[in-house]
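Issue: copy button drops trailing tokens. Both records pasted manually instead:
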Amino acid sequence: DRHDARELSLLREDAAASPNAPPGIVLMGSSQVVHAFDVARIGNHIHRPVYRRAVAGLFIAELVASQQFSDFNPRNRLILMMSGFDLGARYDLYPDILRPLSTPSGLRHVRTAASWPFFIRRWRVFADISFASICDLWRSRDYARLVLQNPFSVKPSDSPASEAPALEAQAKAYHELGSNPEMVDLCLQALAGFLSEMSSRTAEIIVLEGRVNPDYRTKELTVLSQQLREFLLAQQQLGHIRYVSLEEQNLDIPD
């Protein structure tokens, strides 16, 4: 929608201004990062620049694909926050979501992680997002179409509505997390490539274990969270990241 298009445009605009920016903290992730960190307050406290590379829906495949937006100074510290929800949220690769976020360096990890049958079945998707990663006109085509189709329209004010349907839909979605094991495996393999490369291109990578709110604690989310935790602990053993679990964060966040 228009809000998401605006958020993506702001992320890309900020990233475009970063190549010569001084070193600082780069925050990367989905809505968990958007709502967890006050960028201005952190920057004022540590007296260093803080760059936000986070937007709702930037789950693992999208995060990896957007690597170039966060790779601009070798003295940066990269902070990620992710949970089992990020690992299992996508059933497939969705070109409309990946198109505005894809970069050549990031897509390399996604393509490498894809099995040959997975790649063959989705060759059109890979062709689409690969072209978008090097051509801004193609990357921006959906946003431009939205503007051209509604040149003088004004977004209607939201009418008051009950939150119950949205919460019910969210609860249902939690039970569908990770329903495509092939996609879960691709995300882990792509993330491994991303962390391996970025660990040599930044001063440090810190990965915070995230959580979602409301916390439904479904079986699917529990399994995915444990799977991601084991993966990140292995990445820490390899020296690629510093992993901070929920227990170590010692935060009391109400549901």
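Record 2 (pasted manually too):
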Amino acid sequence: ILRYIPPQHQPKPTVSICDAALSFISTDHFDVKKRKLHLPIASLLHTVSGSLEGTVEVTKSRPSLIQSVKLLGSISTTEDVLRETLGMFKNLTFYAETERTFFFHLPSFIDNMYFVATRSFDEKILELISAIIRNLSVCAECRRFVVKSTPMLAALTRLSGLQNSTVLKNALNTFISLSLDGSACSDILRHHDCELLEILKKVLRAVGDVFRKRATRIARQLTQHSSVRLVIKDTEFLLQLSKVALSDSNGEIQVE
């Protein structure tokens, strides 16, 4: 009912319904063994979390969030349930602007995000994961969690190498946010022996201006700190940057 009622006609914004749903979910109904209930409950949480008020209510139910994280890490969870669960986390990490560090304290959240990001081939699932990490990286305190987390960086690296334009855009935006912190730049570059530079080389050869601009923004931020010592070791990358600076068809990219 909630999903198909136009937003302007929905109860504001279903807080009472949310309370009832969460009290149901917080009992033993949302157990990982009761698979028939997973999809409708995950769908309900996804729908309710689609507003600031709904997000506030959902984040109050830690048991529901813990069960949702468990679903991400279960090999028996269907793709439909994963999409709904990740859709909820995307909403929560968007609306809960002052509470984003909360998610890093949910048991197994990072490991299970990595589990899905490195095993799934479903386009929508990967788009949602990339959006969640992008949302988290907007927060300065969360950036420190991401940079210090090998699984998170590994997930980002995998996402950056995919052909899906939405996933790539989200991943590049995440690296832009992460590289704002000078102390984090060296950690990012050292992950998998400067694999980020290999990703940027591929992006700089891409046709789309929107991707090349993001890649050059990341490169600029990486070279503003002591991490420049790691960048200048890659002569191929420097040559590619020089080529972009001298002959790229987009003036904004040349400025970067």
